[in-house]
TrEMBL record, chain A:
It comes from the Bacteria. GO terms for molecular function: hydrolase activity. Residues 6-133 form the D-galactarate/Altronate dehydratase second domain. Keywords: Hydrolase, Lyase. It comes from Cohnella silvisoli. Residues 144-383 form the D-galactarate/Altronate dehydratase C-terminal domain. This is UxaA family hydrolase. PANTHER family: ALTRONATE DEHYDRATASE, ALTRONATE/GALACTARATE DEHYDRATASE. Belongs to the UxaA family.
TrEMBL record, chain B:
Gene3D superfamilies: 2.30.130.110. Pfam families: SAF. Residues 18-93 form the SAF domain. SMART domains: SAF. The keyword Lipoprotein does not apply. InterPro entries: SAF (IPR013974), SAF_UxaA/GarD (IPR044144). GO terms for molecular function: hydrolase activity. This is UxaA family hydrolase. Keywords: Hydrolase, Lyase. It comes from the Bacteria.
Length: 386, 108
């Protein structure tokens, strides 16, 4: 049986990292959280712009992303820092994360008496919790537990010709081991949804896939604008992609060839085993943050133009099919499959190279984004600020 | 779809039904470019410079015609495009996600 070395959580989840996460419930707590992260190396703070002046589904979405990030199996413990008057309920957030059985601490800046006291108190908590986390040993975990997201960003023509098909091969390997793949970016299947729809496991999933694409496209119509220029972006266009349809048709190969078992909501917990589609924007950081909140261990991220982005609680493996980008941005790129475009690397070998990187990273190898401290985090909004 | 590229190829055609090939290096106007369609080598003389990753027409494309890559529709031509011309945002447009022309959307 293939295994990787990971951390067992009290609820049976397994993690490939053992992060201590500091969550601000609201933008007003960002600075306190960031200061604690600076004082206690090894902690991760996720500053964001939200948590106040939000209502309804938009407020719920912010809550779900924060809760999901705390529940992510790569997180070993959580400190929640509230201001004391925001709409995201810190006690409810703590309860939602405590369901996993991991340690969660929560306090607010107004009660404790300002930034200095909050930073002091938070740093003390972080120090104690981190030394507890450090005691946990890794154990052998079957590969079928692994959940991997596939994503592309900063695409150019090489994404559709090389890196996405290669990632699709690796996605097939993950699924053949009993593992889970999630693909998202609803905007970036526009023009290619009929191909994915044919692969949906049942008619309900197929209908849902069409309906989420329709919803996005109607939003674009409501804006009265051509998608082109926003998506494909100026960089996509410079890289040779002419339309959203062309970009989409190049995008979809990254999830491999398995049937799509379900379409899930943004940040919803991803079921175990097989391929799922998460309704999410193409925006890199919002999409990856939603997938991390859904419980993925690793994100495999193809890029032709080159992007440094990482993610707060999950390693991001950067894969490029553009040899010039690999040379110019080697400190950001993990896997080079550009040989596919000069005939020196087969599709099968390229897929194996990515699969090997996935297993190494699951076993503890740091990605380039981790080494460089990339911890991007962003929450998708669906409502106005009040 | 073919993702296999032979050593030294200039351009890649993804599907036998495609109107376009993708350049695998920067190629100058006037160059005669070789590519493979379904195992058969073909060639076209480029009428424009085509940068790495960009497309050129391998057959003539009428104005207003759906343009295929990956064997699928990637958009519609806005001009008559001769074989060998650079194919990009100056002569093809997206059909989908067009809030600016809402009402004449098709999903073919």
């Amino acid at each position: 049986m293939n295994t990787f070395m990971g951390y067992e959580r009290p609820n049976g989840d397994v993690g490939i990292r053992n992060h201590l996460l500091i969550i601000p419930t609201v933008i007003c707590s960002n600075q306190v959280c960031n200061r604690i992260m600076q004082m206690v190396p090894g902690t991760i703070s996720i500053p964001h712009q939200h948590g106040c002046s939000q209502i309804g589904a938009d407020k719920e979405r912010t809550f779900e992303v924060l809760a999901g990030t705390g529940r992510n199996p790569n997180v070993g413990g959580v400190i929640i820092i509230s201001l004391g008057c925001e709409v995201v309920d810190p006690a409810a957030l703590a309860e939602a994360i405590k369901l996993t059985g991991k340690p969660v601490e929560v306090f607010d800046i107004q009660s404790i008496g300002g930034s200095v006291k909050a930073i002091t108190h938070g740093a003390e908590l972080a120090r104690k919790m981190l030394s507890e986390l450090a005691k946990q040993d890794k154990v052998a975990i079957p590969m079928e537990k692994l959940k991997v997201a596939v994503k592309c960003g900063g695409s150019d023509a090489t994404s559709g010709l090389a890196s996405n098909p290669a990632l699709g091969q690796a996605a097939n390997s993950v699924i053949s081991q009993g593992g889970t793949i999630v693909i998202g970016e609803t905007t970036e299947i526009i023009g290619a949804e009929h191909i994915l729809a044919e692969r949906c496991a049942d008619s309900q999933t197929e209908e849902k896939l069409y309906s989420i694409v329709d919803r996005f496209e109607k939003e674009v119509e409501r804006m009265g604008a051509d998608m082109r220029g926003g998506n494909p972006s100026p960089g996509n266009i410079a890289g040779g992609l002419s339309t959203i349809e062309e970009k989409s048709l190049g995008c979809i190969s990254k999830c491999g060839t398995a049937p799509i078992k379900g379409v899930i909501e943004y940040a919803e917990t991803i079921p175990e085993g097989g391929l799922y589609f998460m309704d999410s924007p193409g925006n890199d950081i919002e999409c990856v943050s939603g997938m991390a909140a859904g419980g993925v261990h690793i994100v495999c991220f193809t890029t032709g133009r080159g992007t440094p982005t990482g993610a707060a609680v999950v390693p991001v493996i950067k894969i490029t099919g553009n040899g010039r980008t690999f040379e110019k941005m080697e400190d950001n790129m993990d896997v080079d499959v550009s040989g596919m475009l000069d005939g020196s690397l087969s599709l099968e070998l390229a897929g194996e190279r990515i699969w090997q990187e996935i297993t190494d990273v699951a076993d503890g190898k740091w990605t380039k984004a981790e080494v460089l401290g990339h911890q991007e985090f962003s929450i998708n909004r669906i409502g106005p600020s009040l | 779809m073919s993702h296999e590229v032979e050593l030294g190829a200039d351009a890649l055609v993804m599907d036998e039904r495609d109107h376009v090939a993708t350049a695998l290096r920067d190629i100058e106007a006037g160059a005669v470019v070789q590519y493979r369609v379904g195992g058969i080598f073909q060639q076209v003389k480029l009428l424009d410079d085509v940068p790495f990753g960009h497309k050129f027409a391998i057959s003539a494309i009428e104005s207003g015609q759906n343009v295929r890559k990956y064997g699928e529709t990637i958009g519609r031509s806005t001009l008559f495009i001769e074989a060998g011309r650079h194919v990009h945002v100056h002569n093809i447009e997206g059909i989908r996600g067009r809030g600016d022309t809402a009402g004449r959307k098709t999903t073919e």
